[in-house]
Protein backbone atom coordinates (compact mmCIF):
# COMPACT_ATOMS: atom_id res chain seq x y z
CA UNK A 1 0.00 0.00 0.00
CA UNK A 2 1.36 3.41 -1.01
CA UNK A 3 0.98 6.02 1.72
CA UNK A 4 -0.14 9.49 0.65
CA UNK A 5 1.65 11.16 3.55
CA UNK A 6 5.29 11.37 4.56
CA UNK A 7 6.65 10.98 8.07
CA UNK A 8 9.63 13.23 8.59
CA UNK A 9 11.15 15.22 11.48
CA UNK A 10 9.39 18.50 12.22
CA UNK A 11 11.14 21.48 13.74
CA UNK A 12 10.19 22.43 17.29
CA UNK A 13 7.38 24.95 17.45
CA UNK A 14 3.75 25.48 16.59
CA UNK A 15 2.45 24.11 13.29
CA UNK A 16 -1.02 25.31 12.29
CA UNK A 17 -2.84 23.25 9.67
CA UNK A 18 -6.12 23.79 7.86
CA UNK A 19 -8.71 21.01 7.85
CA UNK A 20 -11.64 20.36 5.47
CA UNK A 21 -14.84 22.37 5.96
CA UNK A 22 -16.97 19.47 4.73
CA UNK A 23 -15.38 17.23 2.11
CA UNK A 24 -12.65 15.14 3.78
CA UNK A 25 -10.69 14.94 0.52
CA UNK A 26 -9.92 18.67 0.71
CA UNK A 27 -7.11 18.01 3.19
CA UNK A 28 -3.69 18.96 1.80
CA UNK A 29 -0.77 16.57 1.55
CA UNK A 30 1.35 18.87 3.69
CA UNK A 31 -1.31 18.85 6.42
CA UNK A 32 -1.26 15.05 6.41
CA UNK A 33 2.55 15.12 6.66
CA UNK A 34 2.31 17.33 9.73
CA UNK A 35 -0.34 15.14 11.34
CA UNK A 36 1.83 12.08 10.77
CA UNK A 37 5.02 13.69 12.04
CA UNK A 38 4.22 16.07 14.90
CA UNK A 39 5.28 15.11 18.41
CA UNK A 40 2.09 16.52 19.91
CA UNK A 41 -1.38 16.91 18.40
CA UNK A 42 -3.83 19.57 19.60
CA UNK A 43 -7.32 20.20 18.25
CA UNK A 44 -10.38 22.32 18.85
CA UNK A 45 -12.43 19.11 18.42
CA UNK A 46 -10.44 15.96 19.16
CA UNK A 47 -13.10 13.63 17.74
CA UNK A 48 -13.14 15.44 14.40
CA UNK A 49 -9.35 15.28 14.13
CA UNK A 50 -9.21 11.60 15.05
CA UNK A 51 -11.88 10.80 12.45
CA UNK A 52 -10.02 12.79 9.78
CA UNK A 53 -6.80 10.92 10.53
CA UNK A 54 -8.63 7.59 10.36
CA UNK A 55 -10.13 8.46 6.97
CA UNK A 56 -6.69 9.16 5.54
CA UNK A 57 -4.90 6.33 7.32
CA UNK A 58 -2.68 8.52 9.50
CA UNK A 59 -1.87 6.59 12.72
CA UNK A 60 -1.66 8.14 16.15
CA UNK A 61 1.23 5.84 17.11
CA UNK A 62 0.60 6.30 20.79
CA UNK A 63 0.24 10.07 20.64
CA UNK A 64 -2.59 11.73 22.54
CA UNK A 65 -4.77 14.44 20.99
CA UNK A 66 -4.98 17.39 23.39
CA UNK A 67 -8.24 19.34 23.39
CA UNK A 68 -7.72 23.09 23.03
CA UNK A 69 -10.75 25.35 22.71
CA UNK A 70 -12.36 28.54 24.00
CA UNK A 71 -13.45 26.95 27.27
CA UNK A 72 -10.11 25.45 28.35
CA UNK A 73 -7.56 27.62 26.56
CA UNK A 74 -6.26 29.38 29.68
CA UNK A 75 -5.51 26.02 31.31
CA UNK A 76 -4.10 24.20 28.28
CA UNK A 77 -1.94 26.93 26.71
CA UNK A 78 0.81 26.79 29.36
CA UNK A 79 1.13 23.04 28.81
CA UNK A 80 1.44 23.43 25.04
CA UNK A 81 3.90 26.32 25.37
CA UNK A 82 6.04 24.26 27.77
CA UNK A 83 6.11 21.32 25.37
CA UNK A 84 7.31 23.56 22.54
CA UNK A 85 9.96 25.12 24.77
CA UNK A 86 11.18 21.58 25.49
CA UNK A 87 11.79 21.12 21.78
CA UNK A 88 8.54 19.42 20.78
CA UNK A 89 6.65 20.05 17.54
CA UNK A 90 2.97 20.81 18.22
CA UNK A 91 0.37 20.54 15.45
CA UNK A 92 -2.89 22.43 15.98
CA UNK A 93 -6.07 21.99 13.93
CA UNK A 94 -9.34 23.86 14.29
CA UNK A 95 -12.64 22.00 14.05
CA UNK A 96 -12.90 22.91 10.37
CA UNK A 97 -11.15 25.31 8.05
CA UNK A 98 -8.14 27.52 8.64
CA UNK A 99 -6.96 28.10 12.23
CA UNK A 100 -7.38 31.61 13.67
CA UNK A 101 -10.35 32.40 11.39
CA UNK A 102 -13.16 32.56 13.99
CA UNK A 103 -11.07 30.10 16.00
CA UNK A 104 -9.41 29.95 19.46
CA UNK A 105 -5.92 29.43 17.99
CA UNK A 106 -5.19 33.17 17.93
CA UNK A 107 -4.18 33.49 21.59
CA UNK A 108 -2.03 30.36 21.32
CA UNK A 109 -0.27 31.87 18.30
CA UNK A 110 0.30 35.19 20.05
CA UNK A 111 1.72 33.63 23.20
CA UNK A 112 3.99 31.30 21.22
CA UNK A 113 5.41 34.27 19.31
CA UNK A 114 5.87 36.25 22.52
CA UNK A 115 7.96 33.34 23.86
CA UNK A 116 10.11 33.29 20.72
CA UNK A 117 8.64 30.00 19.53
CA UNK A 118 8.57 29.49 15.74
CA UNK A 119 5.06 29.39 14.22
CA UNK A 120 4.31 28.01 10.76
CA UNK A 121 1.12 27.45 8.78
CA UNK A 122 0.03 24.81 6.27
CA UNK A 123 -2.73 26.69 4.42
CA UNK A 124 -5.84 25.06 3.04
CA UNK A 125 -9.65 25.19 3.20
CA UNK A 126 -11.49 28.32 4.37
CA UNK A 127 -15.27 28.72 4.31
CA UNK A 128 -14.95 32.46 3.75
CA UNK A 129 -12.71 32.10 0.70
CA UNK A 130 -14.74 29.19 -0.70
CA UNK A 131 -17.91 31.29 -0.47
CA UNK A 132 -16.28 34.34 -2.03
CA UNK A 133 -15.03 32.20 -4.90
CA UNK A 134 -18.51 31.08 -5.98
CA UNK A 135 -20.62 34.06 -4.90
CA UNK A 136 -20.21 36.21 -7.98
CA UNK A 137 -19.60 39.24 -5.75
CA UNK A 138 -16.53 41.48 -6.14
CA UNK A 139 -13.43 39.85 -4.66
CA UNK A 140 -10.84 42.59 -5.25
CA UNK A 141 -11.52 43.90 -1.74
CA UNK A 142 -13.34 42.01 1.02
CA UNK A 143 -13.71 42.10 4.79
CA UNK A 144 -14.32 39.08 7.03
CA UNK A 145 -16.55 40.20 9.92
CA UNK A 146 -16.96 36.83 11.67
CA UNK A 147 -19.98 35.93 13.80
CA UNK A 148 -22.39 38.77 14.69
CA UNK A 149 -23.12 39.40 18.40
CA UNK A 150 -26.18 37.74 19.95
CA UNK A 151 -28.09 40.70 21.47
CA UNK A 152 -30.17 42.90 19.16
CA UNK A 153 -28.64 46.21 20.22
CA UNK A 154 -25.10 44.97 19.79
CA UNK A 155 -25.96 43.39 16.45
CA UNK A 156 -27.47 46.56 14.99
CA UNK A 157 -24.46 48.59 16.09
CA UNK A 158 -22.15 45.88 14.72
CA UNK A 159 -23.83 45.82 11.31
CA UNK A 160 -24.02 49.62 11.08
CA UNK A 161 -20.25 49.98 11.38
CA UNK A 162 -19.85 48.16 8.06
CA UNK A 163 -22.29 50.30 6.06
CA UNK A 164 -19.63 52.65 4.61
CA UNK A 165 -16.99 49.96 4.01
CA UNK A 166 -16.24 49.81 0.24
CA UNK A 167 -15.76 46.04 0.19
CA UNK A 168 -17.63 42.75 0.04
CA UNK A 169 -18.55 41.78 3.61
CA UNK A 170 -18.42 38.22 4.94
CA UNK A 171 -20.34 36.92 7.98
CA UNK A 172 -20.61 33.47 9.56
CA UNK A 173 -24.10 32.76 10.89
CA UNK A 174 -26.17 29.90 12.28
CA UNK A 175 -29.29 28.67 10.46
CA UNK A 176 -31.39 29.62 13.50
CA UNK A 177 -30.41 33.30 13.24
CA UNK A 178 -29.87 33.79 9.50
CA UNK A 179 -33.37 35.18 8.82
CA UNK A 180 -33.08 37.62 11.71
CA UNK A 181 -29.66 38.65 10.45
CA UNK A 182 -31.00 39.35 6.97
CA UNK A 183 -33.81 41.47 8.42
CA UNK A 184 -31.34 43.52 10.45
CA UNK A 185 -28.96 43.90 7.51
CA UNK A 186 -31.84 45.25 5.43
CA UNK A 187 -32.41 47.86 8.14
CA UNK A 188 -28.75 48.82 8.60
CA UNK A 189 -27.12 48.35 5.18
CA UNK A 190 -30.09 48.77 2.85
CA UNK A 191 -32.36 46.11 1.43
CA UNK A 192 -31.08 46.51 -2.13
CA UNK A 193 -27.49 45.51 -1.37
CA UNK A 194 -26.47 42.46 -3.47
CA UNK A 195 -25.81 39.37 -1.37
CA UNK A 196 -25.13 35.64 -1.49
CA UNK A 197 -26.01 33.02 1.12
CA UNK A 198 -23.62 30.07 0.82
CA UNK A 199 -24.71 26.98 2.74
CA UNK A 200 -23.10 23.59 3.41
CA UNK A 201 -20.05 24.40 1.29
CA UNK A 202 -18.23 21.37 -0.20
CA UNK A 203 -20.90 19.05 1.19
CA UNK A 204 -23.59 17.02 -0.55
CA UNK A 205 -26.32 19.66 -0.20
CA UNK A 206 -24.19 22.71 -1.04
CA UNK A 207 -26.37 25.67 -1.99
CA UNK A 208 -25.76 29.26 -3.05
CA UNK A 209 -28.66 31.72 -3.11
CA UNK A 210 -28.08 35.08 -4.74
CA UNK A 211 -30.15 38.26 -4.76
CA UNK A 212 -30.63 41.43 -2.79
CA UNK A 213 -30.68 41.30 0.99
CA UNK A 214 -34.47 41.72 0.88
CA UNK A 215 -34.89 38.94 -1.68
CA UNK A 216 -32.87 36.55 0.46
CA UNK A 217 -34.82 37.57 3.56
CA UNK A 218 -38.11 36.91 1.78
CA UNK A 219 -36.94 33.49 0.59
CA UNK A 220 -36.38 32.39 4.20
CA UNK A 221 -39.58 33.70 5.79
CA UNK A 222 -41.47 30.41 5.46
CA UNK A 223 -38.61 28.10 4.49
CA UNK A 224 -35.92 27.80 7.19
CA UNK A 225 -32.62 26.23 6.24
CA UNK A 226 -30.06 24.03 7.98
CA UNK A 227 -26.28 23.73 7.91
CA UNK A 228 -23.23 25.96 8.12
CA UNK A 229 -23.76 29.37 6.49
CA UNK A 230 -21.51 32.06 5.06
CA UNK A 231 -23.37 35.25 4.19
CA UNK A 232 -21.70 37.66 1.78
CA UNK A 233 -22.91 41.22 1.20
CA UNK A 234 -21.72 43.28 -1.76
CA UNK A 235 -20.51 46.85 -1.42
CA UNK A 236 -23.05 49.64 -1.62
CA UNK A 237 -23.59 51.28 -4.99
CA UNK A 238 -22.12 54.75 -4.99
CA UNK A 239 -24.18 57.73 -6.07
CA UNK A 240 -23.23 59.86 -9.03
CA UNK A 241 -20.13 61.98 -8.49
CA UNK A 242 -19.73 65.39 -10.11
CA UNK A 243 -16.79 66.05 -12.40
CA UNK A 244 -15.56 68.73 -10.00
CA UNK A 245 -15.60 66.35 -7.01
CA UNK A 246 -13.89 63.66 -9.07
CA UNK A 247 -11.14 66.07 -10.09
CA UNK A 248 -10.70 67.22 -6.50
CA UNK A 249 -10.25 63.66 -5.27
CA UNK A 250 -7.89 62.83 -8.14
CA UNK A 251 -5.78 65.94 -7.57
CA UNK A 252 -5.43 65.08 -3.90
CA UNK A 253 -4.52 61.47 -4.67
CA UNK A 254 -2.04 62.48 -7.37
CA UNK A 255 -0.20 64.55 -4.81
CA UNK A 256 0.46 61.47 -2.68
CA UNK A 257 0.82 58.55 -5.08
CA UNK A 258 1.44 57.43 -8.65
CA UNK A 259 -1.08 58.15 -11.38
CA UNK A 260 -2.11 54.50 -11.61
CA UNK A 261 -2.57 54.10 -7.84
CA UNK A 262 -4.48 57.38 -7.64
CA UNK A 263 -6.88 56.24 -10.35
CA UNK A 264 -7.49 52.89 -8.62
CA UNK A 265 -8.14 54.49 -5.23
CA UNK A 266 -10.58 57.07 -6.56
CA UNK A 267 -12.36 54.52 -8.75
CA UNK A 268 -12.92 52.23 -5.75
CA UNK A 269 -14.09 55.15 -3.61
CA UNK A 270 -16.81 56.16 -6.07
CA UNK A 271 -17.62 52.77 -7.58
CA UNK A 272 -16.46 53.86 -11.05
CA UNK A 273 -14.66 51.96 -13.79
CA UNK A 274 -10.92 52.07 -13.25
CA UNK A 275 -10.22 52.59 -16.96
CA UNK A 276 -12.45 55.69 -17.13
CA UNK A 277 -10.96 57.20 -13.98
CA UNK A 278 -7.43 56.46 -15.22
CA UNK A 279 -8.11 58.38 -18.45
CA UNK A 280 -9.46 61.33 -16.45
CA UNK A 281 -6.44 61.18 -14.11
CA UNK A 282 -4.11 61.18 -17.11
CA UNK A 283 -5.78 64.27 -18.56
CA UNK A 284 -5.84 66.00 -15.18
CA UNK A 285 -2.15 65.30 -14.62
CA UNK A 286 -1.37 66.94 -17.97
CA UNK A 287 -3.52 69.96 -17.06
CA UNK A 288 -1.79 70.34 -13.69
CA UNK A 289 1.59 70.00 -15.37
CA UNK A 290 0.68 72.70 -17.92
CA UNK A 291 -0.56 75.03 -15.18
CA UNK A 292 2.69 74.54 -13.34
CA UNK A 293 4.71 75.38 -16.43
CA UNK A 294 2.69 78.60 -16.96
CA UNK A 295 3.26 79.60 -13.35
CA UNK A 296 7.01 79.14 -13.74
CA UNK A 297 6.96 81.36 -16.81
From TrEMBL:
<keyword id="KW-0963">Cytoplasm</keyword>
<keyword id="KW-0949">S-adenosyl-L-methionine</keyword>
<comment type="function">
    <text>Catalyzes the 2'-O-methylation of the ribose of cytidine 1402 (C1402) in 16S rRNA.</text>
</comment>
<dbReference type="InterPro" id="IPR008189">
    <property type="entry name" value="rRNA_ssu_MeTfrase_I"/>
</dbReference>
<keyword id="KW-0698">rRNA processing</keyword>
<dbReference type="GO" id="GO:0070677">
    <property type="term" value="F:rRNA (cytosine-2'-O-)-methyltransferase activity"/>
</dbReference>
<dbReference type="InterPro" id="IPR014777">
    <property type="entry name" value="4pyrrole_Mease_sub1"/>
</dbReference>
<dbReference type="InterPro" id="IPR053910">
    <property type="entry name" value="RsmI_HTH"/>
</dbReference>
<feature type="domain" description="Tetrapyrrole methylase">
    <location>
        <begin position="14"/>
        <end position="216"/>
    </location>
</feature>
<dbReference type="InterPro" id="IPR014776">
    <property type="entry name" value="4pyrrole_Mease_sub2"/>
</dbReference>
<protein>
    <recommendedName>
        <fullName>Ribosomal RNA small subunit methyltransferase I</fullName>
        <ecNumber>2.1.1.198</ecNumber>
    </recommendedName>
</protein>
<dbReference type="InterPro" id="IPR000878">
    <property type="entry name" value="4pyrrol_Mease"/>
</dbReference>
<dbReference type="Pfam" id="PF23016">
    <property type="entry name" value="RsmI_C"/>
</dbReference>
<dbReference type="InterPro" id="IPR035996">
    <property type="entry name" value="4pyrrol_Methylase_sf"/>
</dbReference>
<feature type="domain" description="RsmI HTH">
    <location>
        <begin position="241"/>
        <end position="284"/>
    </location>
</feature>
<dbReference type="Pfam" id="PF00590">
    <property type="entry name" value="TP_methylase"/>
</dbReference>
<keyword id="KW-0808">Transferase</keyword>
<dbReference type="GO" id="GO:0005737">
    <property type="term" value="C:cytoplasm"/>
</dbReference>
<comment type="similarity">
    <text>Belongs to the methyltransferase superfamily. RsmI family.</text>
</comment>
<keyword id="KW-0489">Methyltransferase</keyword>
